[in-house]
Amino acid sequence: MSTLEDKILGEKLHYYCSSSSEDEENDSAESDKETENEKYSQIITDSIEPSFSEWDGTSSNTGPKGVIKDWQRYKQLQAEKKEEQEKERLELINKLSLTCRSSLDEEKEKIMQTDPDLAELLVDEFLLEYQRQRMKEMLARTEKLRFGGVINLETADQFLEAIDNEDKSVTIIVHIYEYNVPGCEAMNGSLIFVAEDYPFVKFCKILGSVAGLSKHFKKEGVPALLVYKAGQVIGNFVHVTDYLGVDFYASDVEAFLIEHGMLTDKKCVPAIISQNENTLSDSE
Q1: Which CATH class is domain 151-260?
Q2: How many angstroms separate the Cα of 189 from the Cα of each of 7, 14, 249, 256?
Q3: Where is this region: Disordered (predicted)?
């Protein structure tokens, strides 16, 4: 039976070892540990290694199932590649669309708010720019054909010149009147306001006696509105009071001419034209 002292000494002796033997044991333990770690690493590597890799154009299995499997894998890779390219293309388009915003975009938004039908037609920026350029050319040409008032023709020659010497694109409306005939004075006053609203239409007035008309026409035919374009009569309205009465306003005359196709209804004019006309009026 060991004493307490033997136990203490024995435990000390049991746990005591020389420095040389300790080094040898440590080296041996480390060597064993490294060998064991290498074995575990190899096992882990073998276990997580994928069963197949990206298709390289050759098949590891030449049987029907292997060929089908390789073909399916190939199509999958092609689809993934196509999706990635499409995604990159969309990202590039979005980036360019954000960085290329210009005044044309703002103009298009403005038109979208005022005239959705026009905006739907002008989906192409090039088409919009082309139409704006053409509109500028047309307005530059018609700027010289701007009237805005009623021209008083004093002779028959002036009457003929006003029709024959005018640009073929201009609509000419001539009021034939007589003094002291019901409706003639109201028509002259109404045409003043209508002419202001339609500055690109040429409005004229002439006495029936000056134009060399018969007494019967001067009595039964006035007030009369004759409409010309390119030297040809396109409208002939005799004794207009049969339609409007003897007391009427400018809005009544305008509606009458629009109804018979002699004037263009401003409500039907595209926004791009009306905006340019307003800009031209403001500049003057």
Answers
A1: alpha beta
A2: 138, 134, 8, 15
A3: 15-66
**Tens of pLDDT, residue by residue, the chain (284 residues):** 554 344 434 444 444 444 444 454 555 555 565 565 565 555 545 544 444 445 455 555 555 666 677 777 777 888 888 888 888 877 777 766 655 555 566 666 776 667 666 666 656 666 777 778 888 887 777 667 788 899 999 999 999 999 999 989 899 999 999 999 999 999 999 999 999 999 989 999 999 989 888 888 888 899 999 999 999 999 999 999 999 999 999 999 999 999 999 998 877 755 555 555 555 455 55
Phi first, then psi: what are they for 114, rounded to 5°?
Answer: -90, -35
Report how far residue 77's alpha carbon sits from residue 55's, in angstroms, rounded to the nearest whole number.
8
